[in-house]
Amino acid sequence: MSDDIAVTGIGLVTPGGTGTEATWETVCAGRATARVDPVLTEAGAPVRLACRVAPPAEKPDEEGVRGRLWRFDPATRFLLTAAREALASAGLEPGRWDPGRVAVVVGTAAGGVATLEAQHRKLLASGPRALSPMTLPAFLPNMAAGQLALELGATGPALQTSTACASGATAIITADLLLRAGVCDVAVAGGTDAMVTPLCASAFAKLGALSRREDGPGGASRPFDRDRDGFVLGEGCGVLVLERTAHATARTARPLAFLAGSGATGDAHHATAPHPEGAGLRAATALALAGAGRTPGEVDHINAHGTSTALNDAVEATAIRELYGAGGDGTSPGPEGPSVTSAKGVLGHTMGAAGAIEAALTVLTVVRRTVPPTAGFTAPDAATAGIDLVHGAARPQRVRLALSHSLGFGGHNTVLAFTAV
Length: 421
Description:
alpha/beta
């Protein structure tokens, strides 16, 4: 356990609520957040469903920051708010640490794309003079990590990762490697994205990736369900505070859980489709379990990527079934195999933030011994049956070892292994 990395803080900004408790309550209640979005409607987007963060994501009493919010893309605002909560829950105060021993690692799929789109519209409508001088600092992908490091006064590595929908999980893996290498003592790591924009919604619609259930948006996102027809575009941020266990012990911090192992692989198969046999996911799982010194039979729970798309859910369910010997018909607990859930039925697909948000939910599952339900699920199809998918209501469960899956366009696969204290 002394070699594991301690998770000492969590911060969340999601469509389920601003703050960890608000998000956890919404996810455990299985309360879907998808709505017909007025911005996408006004823009004439072909699919108008979205899961948005309710404004304001920032608190009005944040001295020194609120007056500068106009400079930041929404993705950066989400990050600053989530990081502040994570550090408070970890009992860490910027200015009372060695700044050179603090790393910031942030994942994003699209950087400040909302700013980029808004400024491009200004350029077309009114010419170059209409552009904000903060356009580049607001939309460059590295600037979320840069702005957070600036706010925290952290002078260790400040890195941005981009592996599409696995970006937040890749950031956590990168932080894990930095901590184990002795580069830093503390890492503020996570993912953020604000891709509920006309361009992004229209582009995903052209790919056929989005649900079109506008007549029933609350049931649009249906991970592993036989009637799934795509994901709902979401936004948000998740942040974990990670520490070397010796550092957390020295300051008498109590870890929430341990990051015991991690794995990252590439499919080298297709630009958007997962490997049909889940080869990359299986390999990433093997790496995470090997790092944790555990076997598949010891896995109690999986927070699945579970996008509500036909291919992803089928491949992921098949990999889980075959890796863990799961049984049952998918509508009730099987005799073997870990419990499985997907938060995307509630929160939609938060893109580069998803891996970090779901890692945080996995830690909370371990800490609170509760598995949130998979909203939107009613029955499996042949490809998604045979896994112990929690649905209908949250399930009490003692979880000693939990995995969080994240997959991304381009064939990115990440698996994080968390263990109980």
